[in-house]
Give the backbone structure.
Amino acid sequence: MIELAEVEKSFGGQVVVHPLSLTIREGEFLTLLGPSGCGKTTILRMIAGFEQPTSGKIMLDGKDLTHLPPNRRDLNLVFQHYALFPHMTVEDNIAFGLKMKKFPLKEQRQRVEEAVAMTQLTPLVKRYPHQLSGGQQQRVAIARAIANKPKVLLLDEPLGALDLQLRKNLQSELKQLQRSLGITFVYVTHDQEEAMMLSDRIVIMNNGQVEQIGTPREIYATPSTLFSATFVGENNIFSSEGRLFAVRPEKLRASRQVDDSKRSGEIMDVLYLGSIHKLIVQLDNEPMTVSIVFDLTDDRPWSIGDKVGVDWNAEDEVNIGP
Ligand SMILES: Nc1ncnc2c1ncn2[C@@H]1O[C@H](COP(=O)(O)OP(=O)(O)OP(=O)(O)O)[C@@H](O)[C@H]1O
Ligand SMILES: [Mg+2]
């Protein structure tokens, strides 16, 4: 559906996106995930046409888009800071793009109505942006984009400005919307939990480079680099005989048999996190702590200062480098 072939971007001689090749499938929810400054927005802006790649090609449905202006691409971009027109009502904001494209009035009305219903804005259509909450304004921005019925929707941290509860609500709304519309979503976030929850596939970026591409399950279970292993979910990194591997906290076991265990240490903290317990263990002979998570059916009373053996099964070691 969308194909990036060796797409690269430099600003003033400095590479901010290293050559990137990626195929985005039709109807897929694909997320670009990475820390601030890693190049996510730049990639989205190149797909949208607001930025030209320094080299490489971008194709949509087999057509080369690389040199087409944004308005000739069949896709829509929703920004982090929703730019609504303050002097227009909700429905006029949503209809704006359709008016510009000179759609017949009847079709404009019908599309606005559909978009408004899907984003649950029907009671608010006569209001102005300043009469709406942040989440409602963001829904208007999304409604405006889907009213255009683009093949692809590009979303740049669309929930970034919202508080946690609202974010959670809109996350599930967005996912449902994407499923029911069947539109391809390319979504940008630096929130790993959001990426895990929404995506069919995640592209993990770091410093302008792809670290890993995979389903949320693949990324969690078999991270392929140190960065992936530690950026998504908590992880414990061990090195042994020149090899680096990761073991998730829930795959570690704490035991009283200190001498028979792979590692040993001292408990620095015991955390009760609702359904799970967590031990923070300072390892002996190594300047690192590990965290061990177990569920509440395991009620051995651990205390700070206890000596503890740390163990795991060899098959739960995930290699992440030489
Ligand atoms: N027009 C520009 N001129 C020069 N440098 C730029 C320009 N736009 C972006 N950059 C640089 O490119 C790098 C990537 O920026 P980008 O906005 O893509 O990051 P991001 O991953 O979206 O970060 P954030 O999560 O903070 O939004 C940054 O180092 C940024 O300073
Ligand atoms: Mg950005």
About this structure: The chain has eight helices and 18 strands. Residues 40-41, 156 surround magnesium ion (ligand 2) (CB under 6 Å). The first strand starts at residue 2 and ends at 11.
